[in-house]
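Human: I would love a firmer grasp of how sequence relates to backbone shape in proteins. Take your time, and here it is.
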Amino acid sequence: MQSWFVDGFVKNNQLTPTYILVLFIASVLGVFWTLDTLIRLSNAKRSARFVAFVDLCFVGAFIASVYQLRRIANSDCGNFRPDALNFTLGPFGFAGQQSGNPLARNPGKNCAMLKTSFAFGIMNIGSFFVTSILAYFMHQDEEKEYEKSRRGSHSSRRGHSSSRHRRSSSGRQNVYNV
């Protein structure tokens, strides 16, 4: 949805507003990060703390994008007036209607798309936060398994050596004369 807005601004040779651009960039990067961690899941398990950190960074990026788009939350898309908001909709708003731009024919649709993008941004905040927590706990589980394997291999070596040479309770080895 955001790419539709970005494309409209680019085709009209206008700068894309921050409230659209921040969400667009965060969403595109988030999609590629998600696909990368899913494809390389075994690497993600080994570096779970890093995955958790990057997911938290995405939470911050989506919070920033939702904050930028916050003014659309209270808009009534059924009775949407493009000039009612304090930010410009460019070719999608009042200026687009004045110039006859086909992108501005249905301002209610544009409002609904911005509201939907706002809602998806909020959902992305939640999903990246949950995956960050899951990645952190995955790291904790990996650490516990590593400690168990270290203790297990260490005790098995000790077990083999202690079966050959028994130590007395005083800590000295018994000497056997044959």
Remarks:
- The chain is about 70% helix and 0% strand.
